[in-house]
Design a protein that fits this description.
heterodimer; A: 104 residues; alpha/beta; Transcription Regulator spoIIAA; three-stranded parallel sheet; two-stranded parallel ribbon; 5 strands; 15% strand; B: 247 residues; alpha+beta; Heat Shock Protein 90; seven-stranded antiparallel sheet; 8 helices; globular
């Protein structure tokens, strides 16, 4: 199990918005762990807000590749209501889009 | 003198012979600032928020808007000059006006990489639609793009009853304030109360402006919840989806 501290990764700021950093985390840490079947904990402690772009860059590719299995392996830890709401938004449109794609 | 103080000549590398007694910018305005990378955008937002002296909830919304608009330019405009941003506080109306401009490829060229828009206005309409991005025509976007940024900004403006304008090529779309209490978020920007034009002088690139009335800025989380509700209402199926694990 790997725990990723988002606050430390983004330079100790309370607004997670830089999707280039999101991409780095996804490519270098999340995807390899999920590929090996390991659990990943995304720790949002001290994060007050996260942009849609940032959350999308973190989770869209893992969800596309691993589907619901990704949600079994990834835990979103210490999210405040703002961050939870954004994660729900991004998951909502991604899951809907992927479902429609499968139904095509 | 206004344009000099806002830094227009400085950005253009031009000299100003007139003597100017500069008033402090703090709490009043952010002069024109050039942003070329995500790191510079992050730095701009970090520096900007304390300067505006806004309440915490309003600062969150303003930071969000600047980030999405600036990020769009850096990613989609394909322009070495990046984005030019500025902001000004108007005390009488208690409003912050934010402007962002680029001289990049424009919305039509960007959108038409993956969609078909015959006019600049048609491209602006598509760019404001949730889930439409120039980077792909696949539902849900790419690993880095969802086509949600401008829709989020329009939604925030709608909920706060703020003006919001997008100008690209010959086309302009302006979201007008909704006077009634019954506010509804729409996927199609042409369903919102708006004005539009297709015969304006050609601007090579994109301009976006938003007025944020500090008297009526809603709590950040309430904005997010309203946006989630519209995404849910747009769902094509009502199948149960697996939920994220929060700990």
């Amino acid at each position: 199990m790997k725990e990723i501290n988002i606050y430390l990764r983004i330079g100790e700021k309370d607004f997670a918005e830089n999707k280039d950093i999101g991409k780095e985390i996804r490519t270098n840490e999340i995807m390899p762990e999920l590929g090996a079947g390991h659990e990943v904990v995304l720790n949002f402690d001290k994060i007050d807000r996260a942009s849609q772009s940032f959350i999308h860059s973190l989770i869209s590719d893992p969800l596309r590749k691993y589907g619901d299995r990704m949600l079994e392996l990834v835990t979103f830890k210490n999210c405040n209501d703002n961050v939870k709401e954004m994660i729900k938004i991004v998951l909502s449109y991604l899951q809907d889009a992927l479902e429609n794609k499968e139904g095509d | 003198m206004y344009l000099v103080r806002m830094g227009l000549l400085k950005i253009l590398n031009l000299q100003c012979d007139a003597t100017l007694h500069e008033h402090a910018a703090e709490g009043r305005f952010i002069p024109l600032k050039q942003v070329r990378t995500s790191a510079e955008l992050t730095e701009f937002i970090t520096e900007m928020i304390p300067l505006l002296h806004t309440e915490s909830e309003q600062a969150k919304t303003i930071g969000y808007i600047i980030n999405e608009l600036g990020g769009n330019v850096i990613e989609h405009a394909h322009e070495k000059n990046g984005a030019i941003l500025c902001a000004q506080f108007f005390k009488k109306s208690n409003t912050i006006r934010i402007g962002i401009a680029d001289t990049g490829c424009g919305i039509k060229k960007s959108i038409n990489q993956s969609h078909q828009a015959e006019t600049d206005l048609a491209a602006i309409r598509l760019s404001l639609w949730p889930g439409v991005t120039g980077t792909t025509n696949k539902p849900g976007g790419t690993a880095q793009n969802a086509g949600a940024g401008l829709f989020f900004i329009k939604s925030i403006a709608t909920l706060n009853k703020d003006f919001f304008v997008v100008y690209s090529g010959n086309g302009l779309y302006k979201l007008l304030t909704n006077k009634s209490g019954n506010i509804k978020l729409n996927a199609d920007p042409f369903v919102d109360r708006h004005s539009k034009s297709e015969a304006l002088p050609y601007w090579k690139g994109t301009l976006v402006g938003i007025d944020i009335s500090l008297n009526q800025t809603q709590e950040y989380r309430a904005l997010l919840k309203a946006i989630r509700d519209i995404y849910f209402s747009l769902r094509k199926t009502k199948t149960y989806h697996k939920r994220p694990r929060f700990a």
